[in-house]
TrEMBL record:
Pfam families: GST_C (PF00043), GST_N (PF02798). PANTHER family: GH16740P-RELATED, PTHR43917. It comes from Adineta steineri. SUPFAM superfamilies: GST C-terminal domain-like, Thioredoxin-like. GO terms for cellular component: cytoplasm. Coiled coil: none annotated. This is Uncharacterized protein. It comes from the Eukaryota. Residues 65-198 form the GST C-terminal domain. GO terms for biological process: glutathione metabolic process. It is found in: Cytoplasm.
Length: 206
């Protein structure tokens, strides 16, 4: 969308390619994402967004106005211990841990993380999106990319976004999807295939 030049390097997490010695030479944290810009390495998604937007002057994605930028920074810092943490733990409890342990999900843990995930969505509904139509202001910024990706993890795991309970969030999701096509669907092809498989499996047990 930005026309920033890049060469993608896919890392197969399912094959544990992120924990190899070769990969740890690039990212010692053994996680994704990571970028190497002519040898300059960054290992955190928020820092990567900021760096690329500043280097290539993508001021629509990361405003230069002090207060407008502060709004994007505000969300980027808030999300770590809220929507990101709760959504990731819900996804991990539902999908990752059972696959690693070969045991069914802990229902009590699932309920706990689902409640916390919905609490974070309630914050999106009644604080972030009540204040402005996007998470970082009145237009699409990288704050919205952070938000939509963290929201999509539990959705990929089979959970639903309650449109009646969270109408602002629902409308925001539709706007972000529409404004980032066709890349949104391309980026979420595998998660959406996972969702279809999970829902199909659940329906077959009914």
């Amino acid at each position: 969308m930005t026309n920033i030049p890049f060469e993608s390097k896919e890392i197969a997490l399912r094959k544990l390619e992120h924990v190899t010695d070769e990969y740890s030479q690039i990212n010692p944290f053994k996680k994704v994402p990571v970028i190497s810009d002519s040898g300059f390495i960054l290992t955190e998604s928020v820092a990567i967004f900021m760096y690329l937007c500043d280097k290539y002057k993508k001021n629509d994605w990361y405003p230069v106005d002090l207060k407008d930028r502060a709004r994007v920074n505000e969300y980027a810092n808030w999300q770590h211990a809220n929507l990101r943490a709760n959504g990731a733990m819900l996804f991990r409890t539902k999908i990752i841990t059972p696959r690693m342990t070969k045991k069914p999900p802990n229902e009590r843990e699932l309920e706990k993380w689902h409640e916390r995930w919905e609490s974070s969505i309630d914050d999106l509904e009644n604080i972030w999106l009540k204040r402005s139509s996007y998470l970082g202001g009145d237009h699409l910024t990288f704050a919205d990319l952070l938000g939509i990706c963290e929201l999509m993890q539990p959705i990929a795991a089979g959970y639903n976004l309650n449109q009646e309970k969270f109408p602002r969030v629902h409308d925001w999701v539709q706007r972000v999807k529409r404004e980032t096509q066709p890349y949104f669907d391309e980026a979420h092809a595998v998660p959406m295939r996972m969702r279809r498989d999970i829902l199909k499996n659940q329906n077959s047990k009914l």
